[in-house]
Amino acid sequence: MKVLVLSARSRYQRFAPADSAAYRACRLVFCDREASEETWLAAGRDAEALVVTPVTPVRAELIEQMPRLKLIHSEGVGFDRIDLEAARQRGIYVCNNAGCNAEPVAEHAVMLMTMLLHRALWGQRMMLEGRQGEAVRCLEEDVPQDLGAVSVGLVGFGAIGQATAKRLKVSGAEIFYTARTRRDPALEAELGAVWLPLPQLAARCDIVSLHLPAAADSFHLVDRAFLAAMKPGAYLVNTARGAVIDDEALCAAVRSGHLAGVGLDAYEPEPVPADHPLVCLARDYPDRVILCPHQGGISLSAFRRLYGMLFDNLGRLQEGQRPLRIVNGL
Q1: Do 81 and 157 share a structural domain?
Q2: In a domain, 243, yes or no
Q3: Is the domain of 120 the same as that of 242?
Q4: Which of 71, 69, 74, 70 is nearest to 57 (CA)?
Q5: What's the CA gap between 199 and 235, in Å, rounded?
Q6: 210 vs 97: CA distance, rounded Å
Q7: What is the number of structural domains in the chain?
Q8: Would residue 324 count as lying in a domain?
Q9: What CATH number does the domain containing 190 carry?
Q10: What value does the mean pLDDT take over residues 227-254?
Q11: Which end of the chain is more exposed for a tag (fewer CB within 10 A), N or C?
């Protein structure tokens, strides 16, 4: 089976499961994800499967020109750049690797929370300026909070949100969550998480952490009204998708002092240009704005899981079986 892969060959050489029958049976054709659609089609117009990074756009026009295509697979969790309806109309499955990176992304989210609470960037700057004594005196006069003393609201409670709650519970944080569907009481008790409607969660929590996909109903969910509803001096963490936040509104909330700080690992668009509003914000407020290059899900354990999940689905396709984690309603 021919598979067009819009990703780096080196990652497959390092992480693909060499003992997988599907891996051995697939003929992988690699193309640069930044190349033109014409280049992709020249290499893989006749491919039966297309594998893309979560930030690679897959337009209806591309899908129409791949007559043998049966499966479009995101290498990660995100799939919002794929034209789901165009694929559905052709009977083409669109799948992702939901849960593959839940643990490292949750770890990253908690890291951002603790860095914000403990003023890590400010502390580093003070050290670089030779002002350790002054820094210690400042902290003793204005003692920072820690996770055991704050309430954290998780917006979205899938695999990553739950993995984040698991880590927060150990710290002693008060945990709230909101999601389209309230979870089973037994799971809530296990994770120490209390469900709240979104407006109440925004108003109550010291930290709001985003863990939901980019979709029509989550686009700019964090807007001026949402930010205004948050507690003065609260923090916002986003390890989900950039499109969930209205950047202009976020910049205004930080500049006004309404938010004490933000920790971000996702942006719209990506890759982020040097003049992006959030990059400019970080330059103006280097102690209060943490920017990471969408690295939360990049880890050894996540890569090993995602390639195992990917080739399991490719194997299912080869055998005429229905793949797992279908996201376009087929």
Answers
A1: no
A2: yes
A3: yes
A4: 74
A5: 16
A6: 19
A7: 2
A8: no
A9: 3.40.50.720
A10: 97
A11: C
- Any catalytic annotation for residue 270? yes
Model confidence pLDDT, tens digit, residues 88-104:
999 999 999 999 999 99
Structural tokens at position 126: 């003070």
- Per-residue pLDDT of 163-174, as tens digits, reads 999 999 999 999
Q: Which residue has the tokens 């693909």?
A: 16
In a domain, 326, yes or no: no
Same domain, 75 and 133: no
Predicted local distance difference test score (pLDDT) of residue 78: 86
Of residues 107, 188, 190, 270, which has the active-site annotation? 270
Q: Are residues 125 and 244 in the same domain?
A: yes
**CB of 157 closer than 8 Å to CB of 131:** no
Partners of 27 in the β-ladder: 2
**Is 116 a residue whose pLDDT tops 90?**
yes
- Quickly state the pLDDT bin for 214 (edges 50, 70, 90): confident
Q: Which of 269, 137, 154 is nearest to 211 (CA)?
A: 154
The span from the CA of 37 to the CA of 68, in Å, is 16
Q: How is residue 39 written in tokens?
A: 């280049």
Spatial neighbors of 286 by CB under 8 A, at least 6 apart, are 121, 125
Task: Based on the fold, state whether residues 308 and 162 are members of the same structural domain.
Answer: no
Domain span holding position 31: 2-100+299-318
**Residue 239 has which token pair?**
């390890």
Q: Which of 241, 288, 305, 325 is catalytic?
A: 241
Query: Considering just the CA atoms, what is the radius of gyration of the chain in Å?
Result: 22
What's the pLDDT tens digit per position in 294-307?
999 999 999 999 99
Q: Provide the percentage of residues in the chain whose pLDDT is more than 90.
A: 95
Mean pLDDT of the chain: 96
Q: Does residue 325 belong to any structural domain of this protein?
A: no
Q: Contact 215/241 with Cβ under 8 angstroms?
A: no
High-pLDDT (> 70) share of the chain, % = 100
